[in-house]
């Protein structure tokens, strides 16, 4: 049984094609079930995120599985096969294992090390498992991949540091204020980044989010979006007085927050004030940053934090890759040791059968022996069988690759005339 | 006898440093375990000395340092356990190890001066040692606050930014440590004044008691220390001196406290030489 993977990702296909092949909008479990029901495949997991649609299957005939999967994709999404064929990538066995481990580790993500992907892999597996679409092949490799994802996250800094401006702002706020619960936020001017940042802050449990904009309707729209309160533009200076975190993003040509204005707002100089100025040109007079307890960050400052974090992550990629490689090697070795089990069991049965039949044959000669001597004979013969099996068992479990394993299995089957059906040998 | 705790503290210090640099949780736990073990051995050492001289060994400067280190370690462990924050260890341990070297090298003899045979003495010394331990923590918190404040303010988010707790937490912990220390410092000094007046009636010719005045460097610096911390406590509430200013004040205060506790105690004072 082979592990086979077919899919598209941000590395192989443009976004419009990825969108057309996206499973996440539909019923994932139904898709997994339909795939697993095809004749050439026995198990399936569908992993679908905005950056990838990947189908993992267990199959005896990867070439046929590929054909069937292409047909399935084309039928399911109503996309002609020739439009996506050139963008598909297909991987088998250890290459597929390595790919899944890299995906779970966040190494294959658009933003390297992003944290969501591991959860998405887990969800994909659980959805398929709930529909009984996973067997021993996918079960083992997916469960192993969760461990790899976790290991890369704990042992490397691949997922550390904010890599978007809005997250960088929230991380800074947390470094200044600790827990953000109950902190007052003032948003001046509605825009995409200010909206995102406000949402992240809301998720951290901040207190009131006060929003003001020259166009009051914009403020109201954003207030509704992030659960805040819109106040009129001329209430801005007043709101400044009680704010802990200020986000400004107006299109103003001149600074709207000056040092004089902050003093007018009666901002207590002792309380920290974190100002995030994402407007270009800047909304906040740089002199404001000279106030002792004011932390003023503009868009360039945040951007450079993001870039620094990205380069730190890039520096961790190599370590993460080597963990993935190590895990692939360990997983493959573990799988081989497991697939040696049927041969070992058959060998053991064979030896035991020989022992039993010889004892049977000698029954007449052994009968006059006293019971304890009889038992001794039994023990000694059993011990001989055990000792004979120790070395072959260990050697079979530690074979370096699948070809060698197949050759050894074949040799042992012949040498010892093992009676078994082919399938039980192949199944891991 | 003070050498074994010293070795354990030093080992814990190294572990805290590795933990801080590599951010490895296992090494962090090992550091805490070593420090706990060191504190335990230290407790035993102090207990032995107590049994030997029949009171807590604090009348001799070296033994007082040892007791101070012990209190500082316990206070730090309390801070670490309640905040679940190990990154301060690397800053506090050098202080612990450095001070513990003194009693390890100069064990000192415990004083048998009859003037000290008073219940006031225990309150006086233990309050002050506890105050110094709190100020030690506050000072370290202040240093780390300033290190991180500088990084955030200058927008060079670097080494300390990724390793230290938030400014807010550092400030709150600093405030608590300073307040607790100030209460004990006040208590210790007041008891000292009352007790001196009392003891003068009992032993009017004792040279130590004669030297008890503001002219004595130890008493003078103690009053300066008290003034610095009183200002720190008051300014936080009245003038809003929090954050960096409070952090700065607590390190200055601790410098005075250590000046008094070490340099003046050993070399200059004439009023506190009971050994």
Tags for this entry?
heterodimer, A: about 425 residues, alpha/beta, Beta Polymerase, domain 2, Rossmann fold, 3 domains, 6-stranded parallel β-sheet, 4-stranded antiparallel β-sheet, 18 helices, disordered C terminus, B: about 280 residues, mainly alpha, 2 domains, 9 helices, globular
A few lines on this structure:
The complex is a heterodimer of chains A (428) and B (275). Chain A is an alpha/beta fold and 428 residues long.
Uncertain segments of chain B are: none
Question: Mind summarizing the main beta sheet of chain A?
Answer: 6 strands, parallel
CA-CA gap between termini of chain B: 19 Å
Strand content range of chain A: 5-15%
Total DSSP E strands of chain B: 0
The CATH H-level superfamily of the largest domain in chain A is: Glutamyl-tRNA reductase, N-terminal domain
Q: Share of helix among residues of chain A? A: 55-70%
Estimated helix fraction of chain B: over 70%
Q: Architecture of the largest domain in chain A in CATH?
A: 2-Layer Sandwich
SS content category of chain B:
mainly alpha
Low-confidence segments of chain A: 421-428
Helices of chain A, by number, come to 18
Question: Mean pLDDT across all residues of chain A, rounded?
Answer: 87
Radius of gyration of chain A: 32 Å
> How many domain units of chain A?
3
CATH topology of the largest domain in chain A: Beta Polymerase, domain 2
Order of helices and strands of chain A: EHHEEHHEHHHHEHEHEHEHEEHHHHHH
Oligomer: heterodimer
- Any idea what the shape of chain B is? globular
| Shape descriptor of chain A | elongated
Task: Provide an overview of this structure.
The complex is a heterodimer of chains A (428) and B (275). Chain A is of the alpha/beta class. Chain A has three domains: 2-155, Glutamyl-tRNA reductase, N-terminal domain (Beta Polymerase, domain 2), CATH 3.30.460.30; 165-305, NAD(P)-binding Rossmann-like Domain (Rossmann fold, 3-Layer(aba) Sandwich); 340-426. Helix content of chain A is 57%, strand content 12%. Chain A contains 18 helices and ten strands. In chain A, helix 9 links the parallel strand 5 and strand 6. In chain A, helix 5 packs antiparallel against helix 13. Chain A is elongated. Chain A starts with a strand and ends with a helix. With 275 residues, chain B is mostly helical. Chain B folds into two domains: 1-106; 115-275, no CATH class. Chain B is globular. Chain B starts with a helix and ends in a 7-residue tail after the last helix. The chains are: A alpha/beta (428), B mainly alpha (275). The interface between A and B is medium-sized, with 19 and 19 residues.
């Amino acid at each position: 049984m082979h592990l086979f993977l077919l899919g598209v990702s941000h590395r192989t296909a443009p976004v419009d094609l990825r969108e057309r092949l996206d499973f996440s909008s539909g019923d994932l479990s139904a898709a997994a079930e339909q795939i697993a029901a095809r004749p050439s495949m026995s198990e399936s997991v569908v992993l679908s995120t905005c950056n990838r649609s990947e189908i993992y299957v267990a199959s005896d005939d990867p070439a046929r599985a590929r054909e069937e999967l292409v047909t399935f994709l084309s039928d399911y999404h109503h996309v002609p096969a020739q439009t996506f064929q050139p963008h598909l990538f297909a991987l088998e066995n250890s290459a597929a294992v390595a790919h899944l481990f890299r995906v779970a580790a966040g190494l294959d993500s658009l933003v390297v090390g992003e944290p969501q992907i591991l959860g998405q892999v887990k969800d994909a597996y659980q959805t398929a498992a709930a529909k009984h679409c996973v067997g021993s092949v996918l079960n083992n490799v997916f469960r192993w991949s969760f461990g790899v994802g976790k290991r890369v996250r704990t042992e490397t800094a691949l997922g550390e540091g904010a890599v978007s401006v809005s997250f960088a702002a929230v991380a800074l706020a947390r470094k200044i204020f600790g827990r953000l619960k109950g902190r007052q936020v003032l948003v001046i001017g509605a825009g995409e980044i200010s909206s995102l940042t406000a949402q992240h802050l809301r998720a951290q449990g901040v207190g009131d989010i006060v929003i003001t904009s020259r166009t009051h309707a914009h403020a109201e729209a954003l207030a509704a979006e992030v659960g805040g309160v819109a106040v009129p533009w001329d209430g801005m200076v007043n709101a400044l007085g009680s704010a802990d975190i200020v986000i400004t993003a107006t299109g103003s040509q001149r600074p709207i927050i000056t040092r004089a204005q902050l003093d007018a707002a009666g901002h207590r100089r002792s309380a920290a004030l974190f100002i995030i100025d994402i407007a270009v040109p800047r909304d906040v007079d740089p002199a404001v940053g000279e106030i002792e307890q004011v932390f003023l960050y503009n868009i360039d400052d945040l951007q450079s934090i993001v870039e620094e974090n990205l380069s730190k992550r890039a520096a961790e990629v190599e370590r993460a890759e080597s963990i993935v490689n190590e895990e692939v090697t360990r997983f493959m070795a573990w799988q081989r040791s497991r697939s040696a089990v049927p041969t070992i069991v058959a060998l053991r049965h064979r030896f035991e059968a020989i022992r039993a039949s010889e004892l049977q044959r000698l029954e007449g000669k052994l009968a006059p022996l006293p019971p304890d001597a009889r038992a001794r004979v039994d023990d000694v013969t059993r011990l001989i069988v055990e000792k004979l099996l120790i070395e072959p068992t260990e050697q079979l479990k530690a074979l370096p690759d699948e070809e060698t394993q197949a050759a050894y299995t074949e040799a042992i089957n012949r040498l010892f005339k093992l009676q078994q059906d082919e399938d039980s040998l192949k199944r891991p | 006898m003070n050498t074994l705790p010293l070795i354990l503290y030093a080992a814990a210090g190294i572990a805290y440093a590795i933990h801080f640099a590599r951010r490895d949780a296992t090494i962090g736990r090992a550091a805490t375990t070593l420090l706990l073990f060191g504190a335990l051995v230290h407790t035993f050492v102090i207990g032995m000395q107590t049994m030997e001289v029949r009171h807590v060994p604090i009348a001799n400067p070296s033994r007082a340092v040892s007791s101070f280190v012990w209190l500082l370690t316990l206070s730090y462990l309390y801070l670490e356990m309640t905040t679940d924050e190990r990154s301060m260890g690397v800053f506090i341990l050098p202080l612990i190890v450095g001070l513990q070297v003194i009693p390890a090298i100069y064990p000192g003899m415990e004083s048998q001066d009859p003037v000290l045979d008073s219940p006031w003495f225990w309150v006086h010394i233990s309050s002050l040692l506890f105050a110094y331990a709190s100020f030690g923590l506050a000072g370290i918190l202040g240093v780390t606050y300033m290190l991180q404040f500088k990084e955030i303010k200058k927008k060079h988010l670097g080494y300390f930014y990724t390793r230290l707790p938030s400014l807010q937490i550092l400030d709150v912990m600093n405030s608590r440590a300073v307040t607790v220390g100030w209460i004990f410092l006040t208590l210790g000094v007041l008891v000292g004044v009352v007790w001196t007046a009392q003891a003068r009636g009992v032993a009017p010719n004792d040279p130590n008691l004669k030297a008890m005045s503001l002219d004595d460097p130890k008493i003078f610096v103690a009053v300066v220390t008290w003034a610095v911390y009183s200002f720190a406590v008051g300014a936080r509430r009245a003038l809003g001196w929090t954050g960096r200013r409070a952090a700065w004040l607590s390190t200055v205060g601790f410098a005075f406290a250590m000046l008094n506790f070490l340099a003046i105690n050993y070399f200059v004072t004439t009023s506190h030489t009971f050994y």
